[in-house]
Design brief:
alpha/beta; 2 domains; four-stranded parallel sheet; 14 strands; binds magnesium ion
Length: 320
């Protein structure tokens, strides 16, 4: 089915389409999501088709408040209650035992459901005005760069969905932190702007995620990738020697490199404002990819806190 993909800010239109089992892109504080009624296997199936996403890769369920959250999970460990009261609504996703009401297609048959309360006012209002939760992965084709603007979604999914609910630019800019529990102790599976240290400051020590297998298939090596080859490196000079200066784009931080025209560079953040770096990351990758350079060179960020979260995405973006 082909649609005329409309960008707008009408909650009524979004609500009506979702009620008809259609997919609607929704804004969140992290990235735009591709949403559908989580209780309808038919609607959820469409998410997988639109994204070209394999069915073994489960979806996050978005809810508007604690009451709605409690209707999709069977049990909440104490640490989960503490994390929720501290970080929700916000960029935190918890893996919790699911209730029977959640169809298997949402969790790819896994016993846990990933659930979060997003902090975007428009999407919160939407969630609180419907009587079903929204399953929503990031609104990009499988493996490609995540969207942080309504226009990114339209560029990537034009004619595949009827509506993009426009909530402006995503403020946080990278996907939520995913936390599971082993015997009630948290395990961080994916780090976003809420870091492992933030989790530990809230609930004490976490278990190390030692699994080599992707428990979260979003931990697949290749992900978030532009079409242009991307190189994540500390050694910008040697990349410039390798590719020359004419057909490369450089993403860096704090200051420009003299060797390249500034028009070929993007400064992710200045004055060590790493949160700014997260919020600009995907828009910078989309912009660089649209220029069709031979290579996108990215200077590796300091490997601490949110820098680790961004480097993780960039490393995956550099894998083919
Ligand atoms: O910030 C976010 O989390 C965004 C916005 C839209 O909420 N969503 C997002 O969804 O990043 P997605 O599908 O791109 O990434 C979700 C990750 C995937 O790696 C998926 O495998 C994992 O969460 N996941 C989902 N449900 C799971 C489950 N039941 N058990 C283990 N991993 C799960
Ligand atoms: Mg994704």
């Amino acid at each position: 089915m082909k649609y005329e993909t409309i960008i707008g800010d009408s909650l009524d239109i979004a609500r009506q389409l979702l009620g008809e089992d259609e997919c609607v892109a929704i804004p969140t504080e992290t990235v735009y999501g591709l949403a559908a009624n989580a209780y309808s296997p038919n609607a959820v199936q469409k998410i997988f088709s639109v994204k070209n996403r394999p069915l073994y890769n489960p979806l996050i369920v978005h809810v508007g408040n604690m009451e709605q959250l409690l209707s999709v999970v069977a049990y909440l460990p104490d640490a989960a209650i503490r994390l929720l009261s501290h970080f929700s609504p916000g960029p935190l996703t918890l893996l919790l035992p699911k209730n029977d009401i959640v169809p298997d297609i949402v969790t790819s048959g896994l016993p846990d459901v990933a659930v979060r309360i997003p902090a975007h006012p428009l999407t919160l209002a939407l969630l609180r005005s419907i009587n079903f939760p929204l399953a929503a992965p990031s609104a990009n084709p499988f493996g490609y760069i995540s969207p942080t603007k309504a226009a990114h979604v339209k560029d990537m999914l034009d004619t595949k969905i009827p509506y993009v609910l426009d909530g402006g630019d995503c403020t946080e800019g990278i996907e939520s932190t995913i936390v599971g529990f082993r015997e009630g102790v948290p395990v961080v599976f994916r780090q976003g702007v809420i870091t492992k240290e933030d989790i530990e400051n809230c609930v004490g020590l976490t278990y190390q995620n030692e699994s080599k297998k992707p428990v979260s298939p979003g931990m697949l090596d290749s992900h978030y990738s532009p079409h242009t080859p991307l190189y994540l490196t500390d050694d910008i000079e040697s990349m410039i020697r390798k590719f020359g200066t004419e057909e490369i784009g450089l993403i860096t931080y704090n200051e420009y490199y003299d060797a390249l025209p500034t028009s070929q560079q993007i400064i992710l953040y200045e004055k060590d404002d790493i949160k700014m770096g997260a919020s600009k990351l995907y828009a910078s990758l989309h912009e660089m990819d649209s220029k069709k350079y031979k290579a996108i060179i990215v200077k590796k960020l300091p490997d601490t806190g949110i820098g680790l979260s961004i480097n993780d995405r960039l490393w995956r973006a550099s894998r083919k």
